[in-house]
Amino acid sequence: MNIDNPRIKVVILWGIVIVSFFVFWVSHTYISDYQEFNEPRNYLIRAEYYFQEGDKEKALREIEFGMDTFRPVPSETLVFLMKIRKDKLEKNIYNELEKKYKITMLLEKCNYSETVQFDNAVLSSDEVLFPSLSKTTKSSVLSSWKLLTRSTLKCMQTENLSEKQILNFLYYAGGVFSFHSTIGKTGASIDDDVIVISEGSEEGSGAQIWFQGRNFGGHRRGFYVLILTPPPCKIYRSDRFDIWDSYTEAVKMTRFLEEVPDGYIGIFAVADEASENMTEELEHTLLSFGFAKRTYVRRELKLFGYGYAFAGIGVKGANNGTAPQNWAEYDPSKKRIPLAVCGVMKGGNKP
Is the preceding omega at residue 40 within 30 degrees of 0, hence cis? Predict the structure, then answer.
């Protein structure tokens, strides 16, 4: 073969181009698939893969990671968790998981319909969650429920639930509660019940911070903050900062929180949106209340993202990750309004 022949040179050149393109395409596809597989939010795909490979423990770790990181937890995640843990869970824990699944299914239906069938028996059991509530707390729970069903949970407007059933509903819907007045693992406590509700996105009704029968939240966009003194808890300061509106608001909120003495209690709730002008300084100051970056936003750990709901009860100076916090992702492609609930109760117990 005469490789000096111009035609042969062209054929060889094109052969090299085609082979190079094929190798690039195969490599690119493999890398893309690998990156997609390892994308944090694809934890369920990884869990199903590991389960099929016979590694149940690794599958379980993936599911637990996903449930701790991406909220709200979808019903398919709970179904898979029940599948792989059914034989190992105690009956009461499995029953709790089953109730979370039923409430999650209801909430997913609520996204598309204002009328759904709901079995109140899901909230009635011998489990001790909220055994006793003061008159003030009962009133606050009913008021918060009225606001919550205005837009986010319209499908529940006609349900006649008791105060305890409402709290059970919020717990099984993904609410984060601390009991016996303790503020998570901060080592601090509150001497009265506190209930925090955040509704993200502009379709939500706003933020609620219930303490001693008063709502320190509101329907206007922004980051609502209530600061309490250590027990006996008294109101130290409260304010709202429209972080979405301007960078200046983020600076003001940072200064506001920096002036809070160590040991004081900070209660936070987002209404609509509070991340657009979030600064590193403000995020760092929020973390000083015992919160932690626990969710991923574009593969980066953050406190919360755009349009998210966020609710938290922290203590100034507490170690990161010790304060109760909750969040819910905003997905503009879905009708769901992000909802995050957090609370510290004087009584009760996790089942």
Answer: no
